[in-house]
Design goal:
This protein has about 500 residues and is of the alpha/beta class. It is about 35% helix and about 20% strand. The chain starts with 6 loop residues before the first strand and ends with a strand.
């Protein structure tokens, strides 16, 4: 393992190209070799940006992708120079290893084994050592798939494990983890946390971890650093002292501090009319392979939330795509009731885009897959305009969504420069902008702090009260407890099992 460097920031800030506001600014920070730091702060505070800066991925030079100020160094060398130097040394180890908030952005090759090996090859690991390290890293993170398994057929949680395996295989001196368990089921999240603990205990690596929900990490870290949007570091100290001394302020900022978890009271279930019905439905990720789920029977009704829960890779996202009319069933059918179809085919997968967008709104697991314009406002305006909504109504809807989801200050920003939590809220807003009768949501609370989580839950609860139907794939147990009327467990290859809500 590379010896952990000392990390030092003095007045450091970063602004993405084309943005007026700084993503993070005025950071003063020292991290000693071997320290374990939990990085907290509200969504949009710049936590992910700071990790990317330490990893040497941000270039503020004349031909770079943005503007930096101040200084960010590893053992006295600029962070981006330290990264390049580690590669040139060719020792098969990295100065830093970054697990991105979006694991799909970290997947570069088409087969799982090759993807983990990619970093090792680039760091000149001898060929006779690469595959032992690949297999060990995959085993460590609990991703037991064939080395030639296609990365495109992995679930979001499996991709998160794959990305972590690629990082751990490099044996970095600094481990940078950006919401490493956000897409994992509870057992998987616990396993990954334990893997990180074992790696740190055996290697002595430095670790900086970003998580909105801190309870699982407080016993692993020895220090907490809190960032404030535009304000740099506002609290820094040993874990217990910071969480105790700043508990009220952290809660107000939306940090999920232990013992202060926000829970929205469950709604009273209302009588429902059917909107979508699945009958003997089978779904597949790849038409050349057997279905991942078969004999699915479930209903999405007016004013009701149907939740799909279960382990990573079980087929929740694949089922959701079929229910949303975005993929053709492998067998069986999805039927829309007469009012929802409104003269179109009863099979949603046969609807044209303009017919679909006003009937069923979708939120993908990766929010960036939904973005097609250059500004947040344009992204929200696109759907209503294509659906023929009058301009005044479109403006009113868009302005309301921007305000309610805390995106108004970002209206002219490029969607791809937003934080992960901001991108998720924008993806939900784009689905809401066309006022569909049904919403199909894949991990809608990913990357949210406690405040934005509660605002999303309140907004979705309002839609249910207005008669919309929701179908949601989620690992977020408090979210399911707050909203779900019907819960179906997915994950053993058989039909989903209905369980108590």
């Amino acid at each position: 393992m590379t010896s952990p460097p000392r990390i030092r920031a003095r007045g450091w800030g970063w602004r993405h190209g084309g943005r007026l506001a700084w993503a993070v600014r005025g950071v003063d920070l020292d991290v000693q070799p071997g320290e374990r730091v939990l990085l907290l702060g509200p969504s949009g505070a710049g936590k992910s940006t700071l990790l990317a800066g330490i990893a040497g991925l941000l270039d503020g030079s004349e031909n770079g992708t943005g503007e930096d100020e101040g200084e960010l160094t590893l053992d006295g060398a600029l962070a981006r120079d330290a990264r390049a130097r580690a590669v040139r040394r060719g020792r098969g180890e990295a100065a830093t290893g970054l697990l991105l908030q979006d694991p799909s952005a970290q997947t570069v090759l088409s087969r799982c084994g090759d993807d983990v090996a990619f970093g090792l090859e680039n760091h000149a690991v001898p060929a006779d050592q690469i595959w032992d390290r690949v297999r060990q890293a995959l085993d460590d993170v609990g991703l037991r798939v064939a080395l030639d398994r296609s990365t495109t057929h992995l679930s979001g949680g499996q991709r998160q494990r794959l990305a972590l395996a690629g990082v751990l295989a490099l044996r970095p001196g600094v481990l940078l983890l950006d919401e490493p368990t956000a897409m994992l089921d509870p057992p998987g999240a616990a396993q990954v946390r334990d893997v990180v603990a074992d790696v740190l205990a055996s290697s002595g690596a430095t670790c900086l971890v970003v998580e909105h929900r801190v309870e699982a990490w407080v016993d692993l870290v020895d220090r907490v650093v809190v960032l404030e949007p535009g304000g740099g570091v506002v609290a820094d100290g040993c874990t217990g002292a910071v969480l105790d001394r700043h508990s009220e302020a952290l809660a107000a900022q939306g940090v999920w501090a232990p013992g202060r978890q926000s829970r929205t009271p469950r709604r009273a279930a209302l009588p429902a009319d059917g909107l979508l019905t699945a009958r003997s439905l089978a779904v597949t990720r790849d038409t050349s392979r057997p279905p991942v789920l078969s004999e699915v029977d479930l209903e999405v009704g007016t004013g009701r939330c149907t939740a799909l829960v279960g382990p990573n890779g079980g087929g929740k996202s694949t089922l959701l795509l079929a229910l949303a009319g975005l993929s053709r069933p492998a067998a069986g059918e999805v039927l829309a009731d007469r009012a929802l179809a409104s003269g179109a085919s009863p099979n949603p997968h046969r609807w044209r885009p303009r017919e679909l967008v006003t009937r069923i709104g979708s939120v993908f697991q990766d929010p960036r897959h939904q973005f097609v314009t250059s500004t947040v406002r344009a992204e929200l305006t696109l759907g209503p305009r294509r659906a023929g909504v009058p301009e005044t109504d479109t403006t009113r809807r868009v302005d309301g969504l921007l305000e309610r989801l805390r995106l108004a200050a970002l209206a002219e920003a490029n969607p791809f420069t937003l934080s992960g939590g901001e991108q998720r809220r924008l993806s939900v807003a784009t689905a809401l902008a066309t006022a569909p009768r049904v919403l199909a949501l894949d991990e809608p609370t990913f990357g949210q702090d406690a405040r934005t989580w509660a605002e999303l839950v309140d907004m979705l609860a309002d839609l249910l009260e207005d008669g919309a139907g929701l179908v949601v794939a989620s690992h977020d147990e408090p979210f399911v407890a707050a909203l779900a009327d019907d819960v179906h467990r997915v994950g053993d290859g058989r039909a989903p099992r209905r369980v108590p809500a």
